[in-house]
Specification:
Blueprint (H helix, E strand, L loop, with lengths): L11 H11 L1 H14 L5 H11 L6 H12 L6 H24 L3 E2 L2 E2 L1 H5 L1 H22 L2 H23 L8 H25 L5 H25 L5 H4 L5 H4 L5 H9 L2 H13 L5 H10 L2 H19 L7 H15 L3
Antiparallel strand pairs: 1-2
Length: about 325
């Protein structure tokens, strides 16, 4: 039997809750540690951090790290510290991304820069980044510090690549995957890799977890990009068509343009070039008629299967099963 054939027989939301419950004490400890590390005498910092950390995030990235460590039988404080660092870096990137993108909604709530302004949002993001690195330095573990230093650089490059590529209808699928590897999948990759690194001296284990995280992160972003054109703000927590309004040429659009011609192709190209979703109903119609959502979802499923395959040599455990089920959740989710 394949390592990941066994699944929980629950609905999608309950599957995620079940996975979380498996490391529930670790997640609570991670949240407590985050709070303990973010004290500040500046009221605005405290206010913004409390807001962004309590807006209903799924905590997928720290969950990946905790499950990876537990799958290899870890039992010390270090995985809690690192899960906190992963969440702080992720939260910092969200604050920065929302400013760059001009996003008004995040997880169904107003984005921080809409409430407090762009300057405050960017600077609090910087505060979170700096605090995350203080925690990493305190761990006094050079390989971990090296991974974080290189990965944050890599993530920043991805954000810049996306910015430079904004409103470019000629974006290739290859370039798109390079961007999502950098801006999204890299943090998943690091989370899973570090979960293994603090437990195992086996390169095979560490590489397997790294590959799992990378494939999971790509699948996660693919579904995010598909949901942008297929669900309402009530379900996804962000505005429908937000990506095209920001001039982002994601996989659904790349596929739809590849399959379109004439007026439909011109409609999509113009929307990307102008950063406008004025004709959103027509755009959604073209995306639907070209099966762009199905194509994107199927591509995500392929990466989710790669993630599960990467775990095949690990010993059987509830944590390995949970990592496999998390891959299924990522591609089946509607939010």
């Amino acid at each position: 039997m394949h390592a990941c054939n066994k699944k929980f027989n629950y609905g999608k939301k309950i599957v995620l809750d079940t996975i979380r419950n498996l490391v529930g004490e670790d997640l609570q400890a991670t949240d407590r540690f985050i709070v303990s590390q973010l004290s500040s005498n500046i009221p605005m910092i405290k206010e913004i951090i409390e807001y962004v950390l309590t807006c209903g995030g799924k905590r997928i990235r720290p969950l990946v790290l905790l499950l990876s460590a537990r799958a290899l039988a870890h039992s010390s404080q270090k995985h809690i510290d690192l899960a906190a660092v992963i969440e702080l870096i992720h939260t910092a990137t969200l604050l920065h991304d929302d400013v760059v993108d001009g996003s008004t909604l995040r997880r169904g709530q107003k984005t921080a820069h809409i409430i407090w302004g762009t300057d405050a949002s960017v600077l609090v993001g910087d505060f979170l980044y700096s605090r995350a690195f203080q925690i990493v330095v305190d761990l006094n573990h050079k390989p971990i510090l090296d991974i974080f230093a290189k990965s944050t650089h890599f993530i920043a490059e991805g954000e810049i690549m996306q910015l430079v590529n904004c409103k470019n209808p000629d974006t290739t699928e290859e370039f798109y995957f390079d961007i999502i590897h950098r801006k999204t999948a890299k943090l998943f990759e690091v989370a899973a890799q570090l979960g293994a690194l603090i437990v195992s001296s086996s390169d095979r284990d560490i590489i397997a977890m790294r590959d799992y995280g990378l494939s999971l992160g790509i699948a996660y972003q693919l579904i995010d990009d598909a949901l942008d054109y297929s669900r309402s703000a009530d379900e996804t927590g962000k505005n429908v068509g937000q990506d095209i309004a920001e001039g982002k040429t994601t996989l659904p659009l790349i596929h739809a343009m590849r399959k379109s011609k004439g007026a439909d192709l011109e409609l999509l190209r113009n929307a990307i070039q102008t950063g406008s979703n004025e004709h959103l109903d027509s755009i959604l119609g073209v995306i639907e008629s070209t099966d762009a959502i199905k194509y994107t979802a199927n591509t995500a499923k392929q990466h989710a299967e790669k993630a599960k395959a990467a775990l095949s040599h690990l010993g059987a455990s509830p944590y390995r099963t949970a990592l496999c089920n998390l891959s299924d959740f990522v591609v089946e989710r509607t939010y």
